[in-house]
């Protein structure tokens, strides 16, 4: 990018420094951030339950942004985006399509997704199979996946435990409660604080509750035909995911022909964050192919 005096602006490759932006499409103002070298197919990040722009692990985002144009965004009704949170995952996928194609004008993207974001990404591809070139699904499962609907009870129980111990709920929801997991959880939460300026608005309790019910409905729905996903797909999780059971990552691997599966040992829902040193370069390499 060139400035008016003919000099080039430095490419931002640190998520902590990515400027906060917004774009209006379909009557909704979407909050987003972008970083990395512009041009080519962007990598759009689909975030997890209750998450805003501030919930992406900078170690993973930064690794991919070294060579790719990265875009993160708030779903409708979340963080600084306007409107209300939709009642279903399908609607969230429609809103994502509006943001990507109408708001930013992209007709081809790569997807990096985690947890609920992976559910939204699957629905997006089922409806718009030509939009996505490469797909990363982490900590997630297929529509109708066994025990996904139990996420409500698990989530509220872990929030209760975090309040008692004055901890961040993600330390319980994403990580094992052994010595290794506790250490990884605290390190992850600290990394999320690295951005100090222009942080996002937290999700409201009502929006959080609506998202939880949408995931529960997704878990109780009839399965989608994932044979339509012919894109190169990387699936990853920890071996002890209590939120979206790890067996569902293997289920996705079976349903998506030619997909790659990585299961990290002694880790939970946030296995990719606990093992970011191994996972980040693998994900960056996969998306760069």
Automatic annotation (TrEMBL):
<feature type="domain" description="AB hydrolase-1">
    <location>
        <begin position="43"/>
        <end position="274"/>
    </location>
</feature>
<dbReference type="InterPro" id="IPR029058">
    <property type="entry name" value="AB_hydrolase_fold"/>
</dbReference>
<dbReference type="InterPro" id="IPR000073">
    <property type="entry name" value="AB_hydrolase_1"/>
</dbReference>
<protein>
    <submittedName>
        <fullName>Pimeloyl-ACP methyl ester carboxylesterase</fullName>
    </submittedName>
</protein>
<dbReference type="InterPro" id="IPR050471">
    <property type="entry name" value="AB_hydrolase"/>
</dbReference>
<dbReference type="Pfam" id="PF00561">
    <property type="entry name" value="Abhydrolase_1"/>
</dbReference>
<dbReference type="GO" id="GO:0003824">
    <property type="term" value="F:catalytic activity"/>
</dbReference>
């Amino acid at each position: 990018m060139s400035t008016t005096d003919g000099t080039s602006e430095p490419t931002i490759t640190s998520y902590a420094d990515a400027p906060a932006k917004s774009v209006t499409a379909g009557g909704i103002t979407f909050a987003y951030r972008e970083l990395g070298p512009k041009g080519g197919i962007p990598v759009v990040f689909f975030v997890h339950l209750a998450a805003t722009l501030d919930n992406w692990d900078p170690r993973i985002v930064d690794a991919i942004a070294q060579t790719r144009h990265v875009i993160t965004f708030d779903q409708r009704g979340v963080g600084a985006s306007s409107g209300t949170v939709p009642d279903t995952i399908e609607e969230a996928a429609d809103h994502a399509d509006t943001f990507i194609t109408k708001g930013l004008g992209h007709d081809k993207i790569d997807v990096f997704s985690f947890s609920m974001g992976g559910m939204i990404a699957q629905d997006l591809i089922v409806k718009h199979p030509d939009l996505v070139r490469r797909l990363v699904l982490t900590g997630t499962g297929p529509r109708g996946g066994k025990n996904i609907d139990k996420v409500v009870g698990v989530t509220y129980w872990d929030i209760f435990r975090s309040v008692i111990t004055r901890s961040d709920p993600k330390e319980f929801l994403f990580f094992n409660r052994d010595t290794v997991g506790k250490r990884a959880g605290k390190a992850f939460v600290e990394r999320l604080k690295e951005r100090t300026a222009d942080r996002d608005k937290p999700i409201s309790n009502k929006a959080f509750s609506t998202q939880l019910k949408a995931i529960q409905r997704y878990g109780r729905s009839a399965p989608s035909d994932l044979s339509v996903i012919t894109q190169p797909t990387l699936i990853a999780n920890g071996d002890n995911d209590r939120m979206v059971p790890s067996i569902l990552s293997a289920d996705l691997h079976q349903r998506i022909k030619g997909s790659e599966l990585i299961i990290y040992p002694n880790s939970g829902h946030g296995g990719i964050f606990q093992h970011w040193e191994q996972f980040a370069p693998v994900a960056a390499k996969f998306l760069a192919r």
